[in-house]
Amino acid sequence: MNVAVLGAGAVGTSVVELAGEYGHDVVAVADSSSAAVDDDGLDAAAILEAKRSGGAVGDAAPEAAFDAAYDVLVEATPTTLGDAEPGFSHVRRALEADRHVVLANKGPVAERYEDVRALEADSAGTVLFEAAVGGAIPVLSTIADLNGQVTAARGVLNGTANFVLSRMAAEGLGYEHVLAEAKDLGVAEADPSFDVEGTDAALKCVILANVLYQETYTLEDAEVEGIADLPGSALELAAEDGRTIRLVGEVSDGRVRVGPRLVPENGTLAVSGTLNIVQLETTHAGRLNISGRGAGGPETASAVLADIGRLPPAGRN
Questions:
Q1: Using one digit for the tens of pLDDT, what is the confidence trace for 175-218?
Q2: Looking at the domain that runs over 2-135+298-310, which CATH code has it been given?
Q3: CA trace torsion 199, 150, 142, 213 (10° rounding)
Q4: Which of 60, 83, 275, 276 satisfies CB 3.0 to 4.6 Å to 271 for a cystine?
Q5: Which residues are within 8 A (CB) of 248 and not within 5 positions of it... i.e. 6 or more apart?
Q6: Rg (CA), the chain
Q7: 93, 64 in Cβ contact below 8 A?
Q8: Could you tell me the fold of the domain covering 141-294?
Q9: What is the pLDDT of residues 100-136, one digit of tens each?
Q10: For the whole prediction, is pTM greater than 0.85?
Q11: Domain ranges of the chain
Q12: DSSP 3-state assignment of 260?
């Protein structure tokens, strides 16, 4: 496949770096201010060095990426809420040109799922978004393989929040102390509110609800509580009873909920550090647990590239 990548953050640059190992050619890369385009295939090392040294991927305008001879557009720009722009417009433009789209950006399928599916229905292109839920964990492909058997999902879906809670529990440290440590280690962003307020986990659960129920959920339909106000004493009390606390997202009975939950201290949901886990409840296979790295450039890029491998041959206009 010929691949155009929008977004040159950790995920986008990892896709550029790894695409060749999966047998794909990157023909365009764009960041917010520039683009590099070559229909014969870009030199990944040169693109990555240009980004590292000068902050721009090329000399062309970002719009030039859409003129490349690409088969699949990888949308890896930052997630935005509400109208999900500019990610949604990027999706629309590719589908209207009968190209495939693979999303790492959660916004279009969390906030405008019905619009994305309507565009897909009128296009020869396909939209896949494994990387938008759980990074490297194959959640959506497992759901698809189970062919309607999955009735509910729950899990720990944000590595930053999980790092904070597991460190607080293990070391008896306060929230602010652990959050500062997470920032120093690069586990938390400079502004970690998206993670610790539960928004990131809620968006992933909204996407799961859209897939499971084939309806239109948005962030507004989710009941969300974060961990910022959770006192250390709550973890201490939980430990006395052989339990701990994790930020758990749940999709069941038509509802989407995210919040701190008591779980058994040695139970399946008590993953530590930045690990994520998803539990799928199924009609015939019982409960399935899938765990792994829910974030990170190469990890998330592996899900993007797996999606590209699942796509049918593209038909370009």
A1: 999 999 999 988 888 889 999 999 999 999 999 999 999 889 99
A2: 3.40.50.720
A3: -50
A4: 275
A5: 154, 155, 156, 258, 259, 260, 261, 263, 269
A6: 20
A7: no
A8: Dihydrodipicolinate Reductase; domain 2 (3.30.360)
A9: 999 999 999 999 999 999 999 999 999 999 999 988 9
A10: yes
A11: 2-135+298-310, 141-294
A12: strand
Could you tell me if 73 and 96 are in contact, meaning their C-beta atoms sit under 8 angstroms apart?
no
Please give the Cα distance from 282 to 19 (Å, whole number). 34
Residue 51 annotated among the catalytic residues of the structure? no
Residue with tokens 């939950």: 261
User: Which distant-in-sequence residues (6+ apart) come within 8 Å of 10 by Cβ?
Assistant: 296, 297, 300
Is 148 exposed, middle or buried, given 0-12, 13-18 or 19+ CB atoms closer than 10 A? exposed
Q: Which residue in 291, 21, 256 sits closest to 156, CA to CA?
A: 291
Q: Do 56 and 31 form a contact (C-beta atoms < 8 A)?
A: yes
Which two tokens mark 146?
């189970």
Read off the tokens for 142: 């497992």
Closest CA to 39 of 9, 12, 2, 8: 2
Side chain identity at 90, as an amino acid letter?
A: H
In the structure encoding, which two tokens stand for residue 15, read together? Answer: 């896709």
Placement of tokens 């916004």 in the chain: 107
